[in-house]
Amino acid sequence: MMKEIPSRIDFKEAEKEILKKYGEKIFYIKEKDLKNKNKFCIIMPPPNANGELHLGHALFLSLQDAMIRYFRLKGYTSFWLPGFDHAGFETQVVIERRLAKEGKSRFDYSAEEFYQLINKFVEENKKKIREQMQSMWVSADWSKERYTFDKGVIDFVYYVFEKLYNEGLIYKSLRPINFCVHHQTGFSDLEVEYREERGKLYFLKYYLKDSQEFLTIATTRPETIFADVALAINPKDKRYKSYLGKKALIPLINKEIPIIADNLVDLNFGTGVLKITPAHDFTDWLIAQKHKIQDYPSIISVDGRLNENAYFLKGLKVEEAKEVILEKLKTEGYLVKEEEYLHKVPICYKCENKIEIIPTEQWFLKMKPLAELAIRAIQKGEIKFIPEYGKKRIINWLKEIQDWNITRQIIWGIPLPVYTCENGHLNVSKNKLKTCRFCYSKNLQRENHVFDTWFSSSLWPVVTLLLSGKKIKKKKEKLLFSSTYFEAFYPTSVMETGHDILYFWVARMIMFGLYLTGKVPFKIVYLHGIIRDEKGEKMSKSKGNVINPDEVIKDYGVDSLRISLLINNPPGEDLRYSWEKVTGARNFVNKVWNIARFIALNCPKKILKNPKKPKPKTQADKMILSEERKMLEKYFKHMDNFEIYKALNEVYFYTWRRLADIYLEKSKEQLKDKKLKKNTQTILAYLLNNLLKILNPFIPITTEYINLKMIGSKRPISLQKF
Ligand SMILES: [Zn+2]
Ligand SMILES: [Zn+2]
């Protein structure tokens, strides 16, 4: 107990004391808790273990902890499973940038050395982020922490890969993909960004075979003409009907190519005649597939230079090749004209270099069958989206889905469990393989790819629960085994994450969850927005407008940080964040402290500790008890609907404008009145105890500290019930 209660909360002291006294372990779930018929579960989006905790993390921690704590107070077994993501390419880029600062690159290291370098860095980050999260006293069950590189997770990734492969959903294919020449890796379509660029449209003559007649085509990429396989027109285009079936000649090399018709050709682009270059353009590749053109040359290599198929352009970089060939086309009379042209070029989202479309061997996952499962479940309403727009967006995306390139050519990832023999047989095996299963060859090579980091992330709700608790042997089920936690918590209650990874992550978790278990992985998707600065600009180091959660915690405390992120922050909308918000939050935390202080100073401990249901005697009593009842009704309604910000607004208004501004003032007189004193104390004690409980999900440390120091209660609020 406190001898003297200071007029402001010493948040540093409060944090130190509460963390020391209650720690993390009070939130661990025991096997017997699984029997509770009311269960609530959130799988925490695993932070990338490649940096420090940022405001985005602090936001999801505050939101999810509010939900978790609320349901715990309602008497649910409330389970929050934390974890970390190795974050493949993202992490490797962080390390490569560090090396670049020292004038080194990853190629100065052997693969093994480079891997160990990243591993050390990631382990340090995991430790740091875990400590930062724990310093916020988030009520996760740290005994169930998972990491995407845990052996159990990798084994499960291999199990799923093998299952998909055996069912014909995974295949290896040589085809054009997005490739970053700088980073030397392929990307999925989702990872590519676009930049608007002022370029030129070049109009080139393609002569018809044995004729002086020619067709003019328009292209932004004259350097790829040696990889052309056809000219194409739209079948509706009357201008060119007579040319169909004839042959054209590629300028400078006079290679014969057919003239074909396809409705993917845009009548209004350029002249309406398109050169078809399947190796280096996705639309062209699609057209070639439709016309069964299987044999198409690739002229750009993964080193960003033109290869032996490019004649005199061989060895040149793409931009150089463009200049050389334009000069040649001009002097030989093939270049009709040039036009200014504004277009979008694909760029690497990390190094901003142009993405080249280059055919390479990759592994693909057929998405259509998986997407159909997800669309059906979402349309049936098996998942509720908060805000609702998530539903429409995700369905639209799923309907347009293309096969997913799941392999990357980087070091930092889960290696593919595939061994290829000298005869080209593919052996999928999670264990090291010495003999080919098909021809018994002993000459086996492991595939030199790793998984896209989102592949393991997409299995997260299923695999983390399967690995928690006791293993249950299952027969004739979709999964090889189950666990007590999986049985108890799957599907989980809420998936709370940023709207920016709705497709990357949420959609894929839904597809995999349904594919593997027949059930959606979560019943509710709650999407939060991005945190911006007060002017609405994205926070970035280069702009110098980043607010670091550690700074906020240091100067204002954990609870002020939480309130500043939760208040007036509706789901799905971006949050404008400023120090002003933090001060406002700090003032509220102090207000709560002062209300408690006033009540503690004016009520005997006995009344404080054992609050009884009060009876109103005065007009003011009636007012506050009725205001409290109304507020509580709304609070519970909003919290049950995951409208955290609405619930907080109700409590905020009641606390400040009703309890502090009006009733506490009135009670000062009532406390002086002998006839009213005891009853007023009963009311105050009752109101305070309720207030601490309903505020506990938002400001756990302050409420516990008041409970411990002013009320003198031995039972933490976090473990009580409403
Ligand atoms: Zn790049
Ligand atoms: Zn073989």
Query: What's the tally of helices?
Result: 21
CATH topology descriptor of the domain at 193-347? Isoleucyl-tRNA Synthetase, domain 2
- Nearest-integer average pLDDT: 95
Cα distance spanning the termini? 24 Å
Q: What is the number of strand segments? A: 27
Small molecules bound: zinc ion
Largest sheet: 4 strands, antiparallel
Helix proportion range? 40-55%
Q: Can you identify the CATH class of the domain at 193-347?
A: Alpha Beta
- Tell me the CATH superfamily of the domain at 193-347: Valyl/Leucyl/Isoleucyl-tRNA synthetase, editing domain
Q: What is the general shape?
A: elongated
The chain-level structural class is alpha/beta
- By CATH, the architecture of the domain at 193-347 is named Alpha-Beta Complex
Strand content: 15-25%
> Rg from C-alpha positions?
32 Å
Strand order of the largest sheet: 6-5-14-16
Low-confidence stretches: none
